[in-house]
């Protein structure tokens, strides 16, 4: 059994949330505070007595360089040359649609500097002729990742209710993590892009583009469309949580809540008793086997 109750965990997690950038305080996320587009949805879920959010991302566009797997390197020199990116590296991340200027003096330079940042100096348009070699090298991916939200529910019934609502809205890749002590949900969709756009040469560490810059602009525009669809779906989910979950929760009387908590307590007590009984049965079976072994070892005259 968990050492803390649902409400103790909820209180602790919510107290540590940071809703906007704060130089003196940050939460456990890499960014340090909640993405603005998902903030209203999180507030609604956290208002409900039977839910709280444990982690979130409102959606993002990113360029990610894979980490190095030393076992795939053909020499110690190659492995050493790639150590700077071992473990992977985010070259670019934004949680908002990308604003593409209407006029640009140098469209190619603008998009490459934006996506590759400090690694822009290592870029080359020189192609890699051996396609098999590319597969074995570090790849650089252009990604669009939609909303993902992790939630703990107080009961299995509540978890299934929220999951059903998420599925109806369109988060078809959502699910509940099996656990005997907690009811965790991941709310997400398959509305994503994950495209290799460059490869890192294992010796020179030069980043070789696999696509032209026109294709990168296509990916940007596709991602912006997906961002808009992602926000629309998020707003529908907010409305559904408000109308179908939160309103019902607020209408629950004190007596009803007391009775629900009493039933939940009895269910947890049954689970503990069941665990104890199962352990007792195992001990009894083990003692029986030991007695049988002892009698079988006795010599009968």
Description:
- Belongs to the TYW3 family.
- InterPro entries: tRNA_yW-synthesising, tRNA_yW-synthesising-like_sf.
- The protein has 301 residues and is an alpha+beta fold.
- It folds into two domains: 6-251, SSo0622-like fold (2-Layer Sandwich), CATH 3.30.1960; 252-301.
- Helices cover 46% and strands 18% of the residues.
- It has eight helices and ten strands.
- It has helices at 6-15, 39-47, 76-81, 107-116, 131-135, 156-169, 213-251, 254-297; strands at 51-57, 60-65, 89-94, 123-124, 138-145, 148-153, 175-177, 183-188, 193-200, 207-209.
- The strands form two sheets. It has a six-stranded mixed β-sheet, covered by helices on one side. It has a four-stranded antiparallel β-sheet with strand order 1-6-8-7.
- It starts with 5 loop residues before the first helix and ends with a helix.
- The model is unreliable at 73-85 (pLDDT under 50).
Q: Overall mean pLDDT score? A: 82
Task: Tell me how many strands there are.
Answer: 10
Question: How are strands sequenced across the largest beta sheet?
Answer: 3-2-5-9-10-4
Structural class: alpha+beta
Return the CATH topology of the largest domain: SSo0622-like fold
Describe the protein's topology:
Layout: H1 6-15, H2 39-47, E1 51-57, E2 60-65, H3 76-81, E3 89-94, H4 107-116, E4 123-124, H5 131-135, E5 138-145, E6 148-153, H6 156-169, E7 175-177, E8 183-188, E9 193-200, E10 207-209, H7 213-251, H8 254-297
Parallel strand pairs: 4-10
Antiparallel strand pairs: 1-6, 2-3, 2-5, 5-9, 6-8, 7-8, 9-10
Helix pairs in contact: 2-7, 4-7, 6-7
């Amino acid at each position: 059994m968990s050492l803390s109750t649902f409400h103790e965990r909820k209180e602790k997690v919510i107290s540590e949330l940071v809703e906007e950038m704060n130089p003196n305080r940050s939460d456990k996320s890499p960014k340090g505070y909640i993405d603005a587009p998902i903030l209203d949805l999180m507030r609604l879920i956290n208002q409900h007595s039977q839910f709280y959010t444990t982690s979130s991302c409102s959606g993002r566009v990113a360029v990610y360089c894979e980490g190095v797997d030393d076992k795939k390197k053909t020499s110690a020199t190659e492995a050493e040359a790639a150590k700077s990116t071992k473990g992977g590296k985010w070259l670019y991340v934004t949680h908002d649609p990308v604003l593409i200027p209407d006029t640009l003096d140098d469209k190619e330079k603008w998009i490459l500097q934006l996506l590759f940042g400090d690694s822009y100096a290592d870029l080359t348009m020189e192609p890699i002729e051996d396609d098999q070699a590319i597969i074995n090298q570090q790849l650089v991916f252009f990604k669009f990742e939609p909303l993902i939200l992790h939630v703990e529910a107080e009961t299995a019934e509540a978890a299934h209710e929220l999951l059903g609502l998420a599925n109806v809205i369109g988060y078809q890749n959502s699910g509940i993590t099996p656990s005997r002590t907690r009811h965790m949900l991941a709310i997400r969709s398959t509305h994503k892009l994950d495209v290799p756009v460059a490869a890192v040469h294992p010796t020179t560490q030069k980043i070789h583009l696999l696509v032209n810059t026109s294709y990168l602009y296509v990916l940007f525009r596709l991602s912006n469309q997906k961002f808009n669809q992602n926000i629309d779906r998020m707003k529908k989910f907010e409305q559904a949580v408000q109308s179908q979950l939160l309103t019902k929760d607020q209408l629950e009387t004190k007596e009803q809540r007391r009775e629900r908590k009493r039933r939940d307590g009895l269910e947890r007590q049954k689970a503990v008793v069941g665990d104890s009984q199962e352990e007792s049965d195992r001990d009894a079976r083990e003692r029986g086997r030991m007695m049988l072994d002892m009698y079988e070892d006795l010599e009968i005259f």
